[in-house]
Amino acid sequence: MPFIIVISLMSGCGKKEPYVYAGVELLENGNMEEGEPGDPLPSGWGKWGQGATEEQLGHITYITDSEDDNSYIKIDTITKENNFIYAYQSIENNIPKGKKLKLTVKIKTENLTGGGAAIAIRCNVKGKAAQFVSTQWKIPIEGTKDWTTYTVELNERVRSDIESITAFLLFTSDTSGTVYFDDASLIY
Fold first, then answer.
1. Fold category of 22-187 in CATH
2. What's the distance, CA 143 to chain centroid?
3. What is the rounded distance in angstroms from the CA atom of residue 36 to the CA atom of residue 110?
4. pLDDT tens-digit series, residues 96-151
5. Most buried one in 73, 90, 133, 170, CB count within 10 A?
6. Cα(127)–Cα(168) distance, rounded to whole angstroms?
7. What is the distance of C-alpha 81 from the center of its chain?
8. Whether the Cβ atoms of residue 106 and residue 149 lie closer than 8 Å to each other
9. Paired sense of beta strands 84-91 and 143-154, if any
């Protein structure tokens, strides 16, 4: 009998309680409603890419849909190998050191083929990635699909040396089609 009790006690040791997010929002204008029709992007958001042409970056646009009373980011282009583009937002103040991060984004796709879309969190030291997590190669975001919520979590705590955090809305390499991003939330 004592042997069974010891095993029973040991099997419960080392279990971690699930991380509880405080729900503190880090993104500015994550719902993408702030901005004017004709603005290149919603307030607080930027765009860039690796190997991106000005034409490709021009296909990252801010859409205000008056029928649905909704605004979002649309990317509609073609990327090649080692070429990707993205909308992003960086946080440089009040870095939540010692906390875990969760990025949630609503995404809609139309005829998206190839690498597809992805969302990512990058924690930087001196402008270089020190901690990184992405849905790419883990959760396919492709094809034609109505608005769906996707989530990625940084399962380690933000390091004490992190200087900035960036949330990415990605149109990955070797991709063609259309993707829409809305209601982004980065919490700790």
1. Jelly Rolls (2.60.120)
2. 19
3. 25
4. 999 999 999 999 999 999 999 999 999 999 999 999 999 999 999 999 999 999 99
5. 170
6. 15
7. 21
8. yes
9. unpaired
Residue percentage of the chain with pLDDT more than 90: 85
124 CB contacts (<8 Å, ≥6 apart)?
Answer: 130, 162, 163, 164, 165, 166
Q: Which of 113, 138, 134 is nearest to 122 (CA)?
A: 134
First to last CA, the chain: 45
What distance in Å separates the CA atoms of residue 16 and residue 5, rounded to the nearest whole number? 21
Per-residue b/e over 46-68, b at no fewer than 16 CB within 10 Å?
A: ebebeebeeebbebbbbebeeee
3-state SS of the chain is: CHHHHHHHHHHHCCCCCCCCCCCCECCCCCCCCCCCCCCCCCCCCEEEEECCCHHHHCCEEEEEECCCCEEEEEEEEECCCCCEEEEEEEECCCCCCCCCEEEEEEEEEEEEEECCEEEEEEEEECCEEEEEEECCCCCCCCEEEEEEEEEEEECCCCCCCCCEEEEEEEECCCEEEEEEEEEEEEEC
CA 48, 52, 54, 59 torsion-angle sign: negative
- The tokens of 114 are what? 């190839």
